[in-house]
Amino acid sequence: MGELDIFFKPRSVAVVGASRNPERVGHVILKRLVEIGFPGKIYPINPKADEILGLKCYSKVSEVPENVDLAVIALRADLTPSALEEAAKKGAKGAIVVSGGFSEIGNEHLERELLEVARKYGVRVIGPNCLGVFDPKDKIDTLFLPEEVIPRPRPGEVSIITQSGSLGSTLLTMIRKEGRGISKFVSYGNRLDVDEGDLILYLAEDDDTKVIAAYIEGVADGRKFMDAIEMASKRKPVVVLKGGRTSSGDRAVKSHTGSLAGRSDIFQAAVLQSGGILVNTLNEFVDVPVALATQPPMYGDRVAVLTNGGGFGILAVDALEMRGFRVTPPSERLMMELRAMLPPYYPVGNPTDLTGDSTPEQFLEAGLAFVESGEYDALFLIPLFGVPGMVPDKTEKLLLELVERSDIPIVATAVPTTPDVEEVLHRMERKGLPIYPTPERAAAALYGLRQYGRSLTQSR
């Protein structure tokens, strides 16, 4: 059992500051643990209540009849050090301090006091000033965000760590809205103890995590952080979005989590040197990991575009070339092969346009021709469902067959024209084909695959 397993697989949780008031943080945390079906024991701590949500309350942690594994503390900052000490004496090996009011507003002394207690008793601490953890598979949720306000994503293969709770909640919303899943989510705030390096190293060993995505405002220990990325990236991709890349952004970071951001250019160069994958926007932060979790790395820069919408094909070529990819014409041999299998009025080349007469069988046959030619390092599909021959269920079956038979990465752009088509697109993505609503977003995802290919090549 890894040291940080205590945050994801505790046998018991004490919610210190549990409240009967549905609008209070302590109530929401307690309710979420109940709603998600946490399999262990839950102990609400509140000296003014006998019972909350059907659970027996205790006036303090020391009155809990059994040992406590994890404490979630939602109290005023000045009450937090003593609460942590009491939980530690009751056996807690981990604590999530969601309370704010520490170094982010200049109260460094309280943060030092909290750290002294943690060190004295050997308790690992996430926070303060954070949301904590969400793990839909292991059924733990300490986020003080009601499900009806911030719906949680389904289980998935991408784990996210973020210093910012508000940005983290936005990411959860984006992921849920697009039908995607999450393995683990950690908002770690001021990183008093557990920091980004610890979390990356932990997730590198986590079998449920295929891709690590980290939103970073600043790092506690630069060498530890880079070593963690270097180690992790040999096993799985590490995607990094840096907050505070401008001088004004740097000032905002300091007032947000009390963090020193450091020079952005040095930071980004160090991440790349360590094998990390850099992204620049929230959309990229959500999109790139989806491709990395399902597709092989990209080891060259040649891309073939196969579409049934000419305008979309043109936009795809523009987006790809702006990312530095080469959209090279097929060889004469491949051109002859494509012409032999397709109607004579189809525009054949790169892109190849299957037109409004397209069928799923043509996407499969032409796609395999590109994949097996050896002339391309990735395939970019644009299957538009608004034409008569693109029957959704058959398209799903044959495109997934194409993905299964391909040894180069494939990304797709498709438009959810109806609720039924949207569900088909979600299913295809869950089964291994990353799908994006615009060519620009698909090209960005492909660029992440190219970065990871370079990283693996350089590390050999």
Helix and strand topology:
Elements: E1 12-16, H1 25-36, E2 41-45, E3 51-52, E4 55-56, E5 70-73, H2 80-89, E6 94-97, H3 108-121, E7 124-126, E8 132-135, E9 140-141, E10 154-155, E11 158-162, H4 165-177, E12 181-182, E13 185-187, H5 196-204, E14 211-216, H6 222-233, E15 238-242, H7 247-257, H8 264-273, E16 277-279, H9 282-294, E17 303-307, H10 310-322, H11 332-341, E18 352-353, H12 360-372, E19 378-382, H13 392-405, E20 410-413, H14 419-430, E21 435-436, H15 439-459
Helix pairs in contact: 2-3, 5-6, 9-15, 10-15, 11-12, 12-13, 13-14
Radius of gyration: 25 Å
Question: Tally the helices: what do you get?
Answer: 15
Which structural class matches the secondary elements?
alpha/beta
Q: How far apart are the first and last residues' alpha carbons, in Å?
A: 31 Å
Protein model, in words:
With 460 residues, the protein is of the alpha/beta class. The chain has 3 domains: 1-130, NAD(P)-binding Rossmann-like Domain (Rossmann fold, 3-Layer(aba) Sandwich); 150-294, Rossmann fold; 296-459, Succinyl-CoA synthetase domains (Rossmann fold, 3-Layer(aba) Sandwich). Helices cover 41% and strands 16% of the residues. It has helices at residues 25-36, 80-89, 108-121, 165-177, 196-204, 222-233, 247-257, 264-273, 282-294, 310-322, 332-341, 360-372, 392-405, 419-430, 439-459, and strands at residues 12-16, 41-45, 51-52, 55-56, 70-73, 94-97, 124-126, 132-135, 140-141, 154-155, 158-162, 181-182, 185-187, 211-216, 238-242, 277-279, 303-307, 352-353, 378-382, 410-413, 435-436. The strands form 5 sheets. It has a 7-stranded mixed beta sheet, with helices on both faces. Strands 2-1-5-6-7 form a 5-stranded parallel beta sheet, with helices on both faces. A hairpin with a 4-residue loop joins β8 (132-135) and β9. α13 packs parallel to α14 (419-430). The chain is elongated. It starts with 11 loop residues before the first strand and ends with a helix. The model is unreliable at 248-261 (pLDDT under 50).
